[in-house]
Structure formats: C-alpha cells, structure tokens
Write a structure and sequence with these properties.
CATH class of the largest domain: Alpha Beta
Structural class: alpha/beta
Number of helices: 12
CATH architecture of the largest domain: 3-Layer(aba) Sandwich
Largest sheet: 7 strands, mixed
Order of helices and strands: HHHHEEHEHEHEEHHHEHEEH
Radius of gyration: 22 Å
Distance between the termini: 23 Å
Strand content: 5-15%
Shape: elongated
Strand order of the largest sheet: 5-4-3-6-7-9-8
Number of strands: 9
CATH superfamily of the largest domain: Vaccinia Virus protein VP39
CATH topology of the largest domain: Rossmann fold
Length: 346
C-alpha cells in the first residue's frame, strides 16, 4: 500500500472552475494523467471512466449524445461533480464504488466495497455457449453478476451461485432480486463446493481469485480497495483452481463442462493440468484466458488419482446421476481464502 496522501478540499485549484460538462471532463482527464490513476475496473481509459463518473453523478443517461457535453452545470451540480472527482482522484476510490453500480453484458449490478467490481471475459463467452443440460454452477460468484447472466442465457436452468464471503453474498442476493431471479438462482456460502448440497451440473463456470499473492501485494491503490479474498489466489494463483477442478470431477453430469477464467495463468494451467487438455476460448482482445475442460477428462483424472467420491454421489454412467439432494452441509469457517485481482474479474 502506498503511504496515505494528504486530502485537500478540492482535487486541484484550477484557474477557473469549469462551467460545462465537457469542461469538467477535459479537466478530469488531465488530472487523471497527472495523478497516474489506475484504470481497468470500470473502463480502460481516462476519458470513458471520467465521463461515466460525471454522467452517473449528475443522474444523466449513460447513452447521452455528445450534446450533453455543452450542458452548463448549476452550482450544486458543480459541487457534486467536484466532490466525486475529488474522492476518485485524491482518495483513489474506484469509480464504481462511488456510483454504487457496475455494468456487465448490458445489465446493471449493485456494487460496493464488499465485492470486487465486475469485469470478466465471460461477458463474451456466455452468449456463445451452446445448450446446457441440467443445473449450472457459478463458483466464486462475488456480486452474482455471472450467475444472473447465466440464468438469463438459460431461462429453463437453475443456477447455484457459490461464494465464501458472507458480505459478498448479501450484495449478490440484492442483484439476483433486482433481476427477478430469486426462484432460479440459489445462493450458497461455501468454500468452492464444500457446503453445497449434493447435485450434478451440466455446466460449472468460475472466475476465481487467480492472482499470485506477490502480485496482489503490489497492486495499485484502487485495486487494493477491493476485497483481498476476491483477488488473492495463493502463492502461484492456482489455489482455488486446484480445489475447483478436484471437486468438479464429482459434480458434473455426463457430458458436462467446466469453464474457468484464469487471467495470466494460461501457461501455468497448461503445465499443471496438461492431462485435462484445457481448450482456450477466443476473446476479442486475443487474451484467450478462459479455458474449457470436458467433464470426462476430469473423471478420468479422478479415477487415476484414486480420489473417492463424496458420499451420496456416483460416477456418471455407473448408476443414476440424479439423486435427492442431501441436507445442507456445514458452512466453511474460513474468511480469508482468495480471489484474485485481475485484468478481468467478476
């Protein structure tokens, strides 16, 4: 963490206070550059993030045309804008925490410091997924945004949204309710599948913590304000991914799939899980950091390593894979396991 900065009353002392929205935008872009603000949580460049923050602060539509930049601000509007920009520039508060919202896949989600700010390549991947048979799981759901997008993509499916943080689940619950999905999206507080009732899934999706601890330690202040457990994937970033793949072997329907976003760990995943033959899905920017693993490969790996199945589950094909759900297991008492800061995170 960088040392605390003094917090003057205003983000700077311009020779003349801007009068129009466009003037405030130009001023904000200059200050972003001068202060070296970290970007990537809301937008990739200063112009887009500052414009988003200004429009949101003023309660103006985010799809306003360019004419809005000529709008002259009232004194109260100028005061509100100056306050918001001051917190963003001087205190390094992420823009999404100032507005209390984030957008993903064209949908608005509530966010606050209890959850990581949604950003995920799954927004590209989910619309391209083919049919899914049966139940879906979103592991490390955070704000619940991917669980909501999956439920909207597959209107006949139930989705289990799994998250270790009790605080994050409160935000997820609000987002699920906002989208009218409380009957189909089921929230579980659990360390991966530890406390989730027994069930089999046609699809397991996860955007887990995947940044190595040393990387998290050196993140810019804006990213340090996000929950550490939503960022830190352990010494090599693979802690949660290892556990997920181990448990997923016993949770998939025959023909089921696992999709995991892994950030910069593509080579590490290929190396450690080579027997699973991960297939990397294309993304628009060429990062290609979401891997698909077929369930039958996990089942083979599980058999070779001699892992035992959780009580009440049978391997697909050996008997009926549809079994009554057992009583909910005890919840994990851990509160420090990790998620990771990412180039993209949900």
């Amino acid at each position: 963490m960088s040392p605390p900065r003094p917090k003057p009353k205003s983000p700077s002392e311009p020779a003349g206070r801007p009068e129009t929205l466009g003037g405030w935008l130009a001023w904000a872009e200059t200050r972003y550059a001068e202060e070296g603000l970290a970007l990537g949580q809301v937008a990739a460049d200063a112009h887009d993030e500052a414009l988003y923050l200004l429009l949101s602060t003023l309660g103006l539509p985010l799809d306003s045309d360019e004419g809005v930049l000529e709008r002259t601000l009232t004194r109260s509007e100028q005061a509100a804008v100056e306050k918001a920009l001051g917190r963003r520039i001087l205190e390094r508060v992420p823009a999404a925490y100032l507005t209390g919202e984030a957008w993903l896949g064209g949908h608005k989600f509530r966010v606050d410091p209890r959850v990581i700010i949604p950003r995920s390549y799954f927004v590209e991947i989910i619309p391209r997924l083919g049919p899914v048979r049966g139940r879906i799981a979103d592991v490390c759901t955070g704000s619940g945004c991917l669980a909501v997008l999956l439920a909207l993509r597959y209107p006949e499916a139930d989705v289990d949204a799994i998250e270790l943080s009790k605080d994050a689940l409160e935000v997820a619950r609000a987002n699920v309710r906002d989208h009218g999905l409380s009957k189909r999206v089921h929230l579980h507080q659990s360390d991966v599948f530890d406390a989730v009732p027994l069930a089999r899934y046609g699809l397991i999706v996860s955007n887990p913590p995947y940044e190595p601890t040393a990387i998290v330690d050196g993140l810019p202040e804006e990213f340090q304000r996000e929950p550490r457990m939503a960022l830190d994937g352990g010494a090599d970033g693979l802690d949660v991914i290892r556990k997920l793949l181990d448990q997923a072997a016993h949770r998939l329907e025959s023909g089921g799939r696992v999709l995991i976003e892994v950030g910069g760990l593509r080579e590490a995943v290929d190396r450690e899980f080579s027997e699973l033959k991960p297939r990397w899905l294309r993304t628009a920017d060429g990062t290609d950091c979401v891997c698909l693993i077929e369930g039958f490969r996990l089942a083979r790996g599980s058999g070779r390593k001699g892992r035992s199945l959780p009580e009440g589950l049978e391997r697909p094909g050996t008997a009926s894979s549809s079994r009554p759900a057992a009583a909910r297991g005890g919840r994990s008492g851990s509160t420090s396991a990790g998620k990771s800061p990412r180039s993209r995170r949900s």
